[in-house]
Structure prediction request, 72 residues.
Amino acid sequence: MTTAAERLEEVKECVMPVIDDLSNEVRLCFDYFENQFEHTVDEIYLSGGTALMPGITEVLAPVMEKPVHLWS
Prediction:
C-alpha cells in the first residue's frame, strides 16, 4: 500500500516535465514583455486548481527566477 507522500511524489514526477516546459514558455513571454515595454515582472501570483498543488511555488520560483505566491 502506498502512502500519501509516495503518491504525491509520483504525481510530481509526472507533472514536472510539463511544468518545466510551461514555465520556460512563460519566461520567454516575460522576457519579451520586459524588453518591449522596459518594465520588469517582479513577482508571480498563481491561482486556480493547479496552484494548490503542494510545493508548486517552491518548484516554480527557481525556474522563473522570481518570487512565486498563491493568490486567491
Observations:
- Strands lie at 44-46, 68-70.
- The mean pLDDT is 90.
- The first strand starts at residue 44 and ends at 46.
- Residues 4-37 form the longest helix (34 residues).
